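Hi R.,

Here's the chain you asked about this morning:
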Amino acid sequence: MDVSFLGGPQPQRGIGVVAPFDFALDRELWRWVPDDVSLRLTRTPYVPVEVSLDLARLVSEHETLREAVQALSVSEPEVLAYACTSGSFVGGLAGERAMCEAMSAAGEVPSLTTSGALLEALDELGAARIALVTPYTESVTQALEEYLGEAGVTVTGRAFLGLTRHIWKVPYRSVVDMARQAVVGAADALFISCTNLPTYDAIPQLEAELRMPVLSANQVTMWSALRRIGVHAVGPYQGLLLQPESTEPAAPPVESASPSHPPQPEEQEGWT
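And the predicted structure, written out as tokens:
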């Protein structure tokens, strides 16, 4: 069959993504991306260290980032994203800015990190008080709180799992249970940390149940990267992604919120 008459494929806009060597959620990142945008991923070199502050420092070294960005640059991405929360908050606000500068210098395009994208999203929502969920140990969770505090964000409650490996295997039920434990004060939003923690299908349920915006590491990373190139992230019933001009019709309400029964728009009234 001669398909030359089709003239395609159509050009794809590109986002370069640098992820830690153990990143296992490529497919989750893609779920926020519209069809005319492609992700070009690369990983940092393997190091025999479990998830910890030491690992966060190793996978965010500037030379490591420069080498990864140089490899990605051959595919000519329009923006670069470092998809690791701990690796981008471990050096504080100054460290996060320096990472972006190192990546931009190596790739000659705008750059962002997950932790920087989180602050951008919180600013977009006007959220200064948040509940916090992480899969990390207490020391890594505390380092995230310190980063947020440096940015003027107050953590009203937290829950963490204490994991040092296999974070991508955590089920949605554990994420939901932690979120319920963390929301104990007057929070403006909930943040679920770690790009290796699955969250996509849990976000709508939690927003409906908790009546507040729910952000996750992968969500804010893709939202920010796409925003840089003037493209909207896609995702059902996620407060960060809702556009004022949306005219999407409301669906009937569900009896209970669960990952298999996503909440409907009217369930989110009160904060959107």
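The first strand starts at residue 13 and ends at 19.

Let me know if you need anything else.
M.
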